Amino acid sequence: MSMKQILQQLAHKQSGYVELRWHKRTSNSFLATKGRVDVANHSLTEGVGVRALVDGAWGFAATADVSEAAIKRAIDQARANASLLAKARGSHSIELRKGRLSTKDFTGEGFRELQSMSIADKLGKIIELEHQLAKSSSRMHTARARYTEYLEEKAIVTSDGASCSFQIAQPEVSLSAIVEKDGQRATSNKGAGVSGGWSCLFRHPTLDHMVDEIAKTSVDLLDAKYPEGGRKKVILAPAVVGLLCHEAIGHTVEADFVKAGSVAAGKIGQDVASSLVTMADSGQENISGYAVGNLPFDDEGIETENTVIIRDGKLVSYLHNRESAAEFGVNPTGNARAWLFSDEPLIRMRNTYIVPGTSKLSDMISSMDDGYLIEGAGSGQADSNGEFMFGCGYVWEIKNGKKTNLLREATLSGIAFDVLKTVDAVSSEFQWDLGTGHCGKGQPAKVDAGGPYIRCEINIGGRQS
Amino acid sequence: MSETKDNIKNLSHKLDAAARDTLAYAQKKSADRAKVSASCSIEKRLVVENKQFTLANTLETQKVGIGIHKDQKKGSASLNNYDANGLRQSVDDALALAQFSVPDEYLTMPDAKEAPKAKTLDFMWNDRTSTASLGDLQEFTQAMLARLTKDKRVALDRLEVSTSCMWHGLYNSLGVAQTETQTSLSWSFMGMAVDGDAVSGFDYDGRSVYAWDGALDIALKQCDEFAEKIVKNLHPVKAPTYKGPVLLTPRAVEEILLGTMLYHMSGASVMDGKSQWGDKINTQVVSNLIHLSDDPHSAKFSGATAFDGDGLPTSSRILINNGKLMTHLHDCYTAKRCKTKSTATSGGPFALMMAPGRDDLKTMMNARAEMLVVDRFSGNIDPIKGDFSGVAKSSRYFMNGADKGAVSETMIAGNLFESLSQVLAVSSVTEDVSGSMQMPWVLIDHVSVTGN
Fold first, then answer.
1. CATH number at residue B169
2. Model's pTM, two decimal places?
3. Which fold has domain A3-222?
4. B434-452, pLDDT tens digit by residue?
5. A 75-134 residues with CB < 8 A to B
6. Is B195 left (phi over 0), alpha (psi -120 to 50) or beta?
7. Which end of chain A has fewer surrounding CB within 10 Å, N or C?
8. How is residue A64 annotated by DSSP?
9. Burial of B401 (0-12, 13-18, 19+ CB in 10 A)
10. CA of A356 to nearest chain B CA: how many angstroms apart?
11. Looking at chain A from residue 390 to 409, which residues have their Cβ under 8 Å from any Cβ of chain B?
12. CB–CB of A410 and B389 under 8 A?
């Protein structure tokens, strides 16, 4: 009997709402640097998480023992936990919106390929990439190649009708370099992640010529100056647009943050961006086929969709789970996600992006007198009031319509909606570019983000003399 | 004995046996060296979102990690149960990875002589914490919730309170066997202040302690301070633009200064030639006002431990003495590569303390007519070059020692090596940071402040 069938049998015996989620994650991770293999790790995590809704309150329990008896004990524990909490909640009762409950069984592209591929081939490729990067420049101080793959298998059954399962693969690879000259050092890195197999990963456009590009950029940065600080007209590259979408806008429209009073609260229907901006969060991206956050359904068993957040500059939707959807009187958007079987689902993003426009990048540059092209997204954070901060890897100076000098890394900041209101051009070129690493919100989550090139005004952190 | 303590004891016996069986299997499969790290925990957790209890959670977890050396090549594997067949498969997986890895003559593990049985840190287990029920946690949480939301302008996003009882064992095929039990009571909260259309910046705080008794008083004081702080962060003022000194709160000292200092002390950075302090032992590396130590046996800090990730018994040590670097932080591997001895800091340091200075906090705030006091930092720090640039969060603008209000859209940038070498003052008071370290307020110079 499959895990889904075991969960179905158990769920049907329950009164009230019960959500059973079996999750098995197999992962391999490698890290090669300086001719060594610092990490060569295989990991397996498996278990069942149970959420029960009793008298309007949630209870959660989880078990690593996937026998029927252990899952039944976890159900009883979750119900007991919920009963305890129901007394504390008083009259405020949780309700769930039904939405499109999935009954699909889905195996993603590349799952079988990655599952059957030999460890020797995978690890060998990462060792080779590190070796190539190390040899790519006489200035190279440290080359580093990192690879992680997740083989995710889930079955989700709810007592009100969801009964679905998936198998998906999420590999990612990244390279980084530190170069040195006369005691000065510079760094550069590149990486990509996909929902797909090995061959899909290495077809990702970000990885084209990545060894040569990282080596060249990091060496060129050795002699580069810093950009000038202040409010500037800039073109943001897809990776930086992705960061802006995810950190500065995406988190503020997660319904749990909205309920807490984020800057997006009460703004549905209002103009929050230039009319050139349409922004969405999608569980089923169909723009370029390389996004890592694709999911057929979320961890409440709701089928995912392309959720438009901002349409032509107007805020039109938040991101919901079943509970927040009921509170806001809308349909759930399939954004409930849990990292491990032992984690409860939270409202999380999937693939967040700005929809491509009609401008050409070359025209956007040639029509600028003075400004910057911002490339290479670093880490980023944003606040509930929409204030954000991103690092970027490097900056191109634009003078009199031409891309001129390469400049060192910079920090960008601003108020998200204010920045989006200054957008005056959106390119037709598009790329997913945040498929490595994780979003953190109490639990990690694999997400992606990207977009076209956009031109806007932004604060660049600089030095005062 | 409490039910939880019984359960942890039973689980630890099973994991201890599983770990020893796994080592035996690894040796049978011709591993040259093997290490098993096993742990189990029983956790109870309550979650409040938007001022309502939203989740009660109970969890029992196990984890076993296996590290293998074979022909001076390494591989590792882990799983979240102690099923005998699963553990054997994990050994096979780790061996397979090692087979395709790269030989490294420096791979090593300590033996029982190098890693004798570590002493037990009795303060790490508290019976009252281990017996706390979900009902007890609910009362604790309710008290915190009431205090956090006394001021209606506080928009509490999330409050979590949990207890955990944990056992951890570390074994290797050279005879090392260390075990440790621990209880913890932890809380964290995050939120902002909302007053009409005005929204403050987001902030958070939290702490972890071993003992139940006295914890509520600590938590409530922290709730009061948090609520007062975020309400004061409403209606921000414009910050000045200048280059000069900024005052870092203890939390900002941890966020801005500590990471770069630890990076250059780290044995891994020294080993790879990334540290600027690789050859600076007994040399002045920062201002002589800075004194930093690590005390893994201190009951004050939640990171206390009797042994490190290699199984070596830990001990307290001075890292920076009046600005002079006293040691790098090595595990067995980096120590062997650097031809020195491990400092038993694999996975560490564990409980850092920057010593108080001699300066009065009020005087420090008057150091410049216009002064930014930075409480949090959201930005990028390049530990290699020491360059930092980002947004000063939950930060305030002082003029002639008077608090002019919170600031927004204020960026700070500079170089940490420059700032650390010319520290202007260190406060005579220190504060606990998250229950895991203690830091003073530090006045650093040469920082570019860009107001809005």
1. 3.30.2290.10
2. 0.92
3. PmbA/TldD fold (3.30.2290)
4. 888 999 999 999 999 988 6
5. 77, 81-82, 84-85, 88-89, 92, 94, 119-120, 123-124, 127
6. beta
7. C
8. S
9. middle
10. 29
11. 391, 409
12. yes
